């Protein structure tokens, strides 16, 4: 149900997006830091909603649909804002494009496979990729201004975020290729079964 706590947490992640966008658009060290904190809070809800759903046995089709949508909206909106406001230093635009392209590809494959009643399970490496990706976006949202705000001007916040985003992009390609191979295997079996049935 919509009022179950896991679903409320998922919806809060979607609701945080316009606030996050507004904070980044303001462009001050304080609002960048606030955007980083909001993003961290939203990322934590991603961990909590699934854990709570399992613990409380509050599984729902609505939750299954909303959870990946909320994740992709949060990541996509954050990366686009970072790119649009020049918060992607050190060639960070390129891993951002890779990550967004992969998300669209995997979403399309999952949608097709769902129509054939085949699921594409999340791998352990993909979970690591997500963790590194979220950490990278958090650092990039914070920016170097946050280092100065916290009296740590020596901390290369933007550089750390960019390096982590490149690492996430490499893992994105590796895991995306694994998902693509798995999906193509299922598609080949489905096509073969359809030919036999016809």
Largest sheet: none
Number of helices: 6
| CATH T-level fold name | Four Helix Bundle (Hemerythrin (Met), subunit A)
**CATH C-level label:** Mainly Alpha
Mean pLDDT: 84
Fraction of residues in helices?
A: over 70%
CATH superfamily: CDP-alcohol phosphotransferase transmembrane (TM) domain
Task: Give, in order, the helices and strands.
Answer: HHHHHH
Strand portion: under 5%
Give the termini separation: 41 Å
**How many strand segments?**
0
**What number of domains?**
1
- Structural class, from secondary structure content? mainly alpha
Main location: membrane
Membrane topology: Multi-pass membrane protein
Protein name: CDP-diacylglycerol--glycerol-3-phosphate 3-phosphatidyltransferase
Catalytic activity: a CDP-1,2-diacyl-sn-glycerol + sn-glycerol 3-phosphate = a 1,2-diacyl-sn-glycero-3-phospho-(1'-sn-glycero-3'-phosphate) + CMP + H(+)
